[in-house]
Amino acid sequence: MTQGDGTKENPWQLKTPPGTAEYTMYKAEKDGNEILVCTVGKTVLHYEYRCLTDLHDMLKKHGDWVDLGAADEQKPAKEGTVEAWGRSAENPVGGWYGLKKGLRGRFGMYVPPLMEALGLAELEHNPKNNRMRAI
After folding, report:
1. In this structure, are residues 45 and 59 in contact, taking their beta carbons and an 8 Å threshold?
2. Which of 62, 64, 116 has its CA nearest to residue 85?
3. pLDDT, tens digit, for every residue of 94-105?
4. Where would a tag sit more exposed on the chain, N or C end, judged by fewer CB atoms within 10 A?
5. pTM of the model
6. Which residues have C-beta within 8 Å of that of residue 126, sequence separation ≥ 6?
7. Whole-angstrom distance, CA of residue 98 vs CA of residue 49
8. DSSP states of 4-68 as a string?
């Protein structure tokens, strides 16, 4: 089980799906909106907090495993992946869940482990090509 309670003082302690990197996440408020603050080393990323519910809903509708497909913002996301959905004009926010220009990608790397820790999804932990599905 993941340590932390999702606050700035006690963030969730997470690992990337392959287990190769550790990072933290916590819920915060910025400009009146709830966000996730993800800290990987010295890099800080922000994602819309609602991504957890929206992604869970998408996975439930899909009904099967979905490739994560993590990619940096500057690289194209593989079609049909969690990463592609997290930046698609067809998702509930009509685009990026990532909020910091230049650091909006990697949605498929950092959000799924939190969903697993919260009991919303099942996640594979292979060296590459991991997938997730709703619980």
Report:
1. no
2. 62
3. 999 999 999 999
4. N
5. 0.95
6. 17, 18
7. 10
8. S-SSSSS-EEEE-TTS--EEEEEEEEETTEEEEEEEETTEEEEEETTHHHHHHHHHHHH-S-EE-
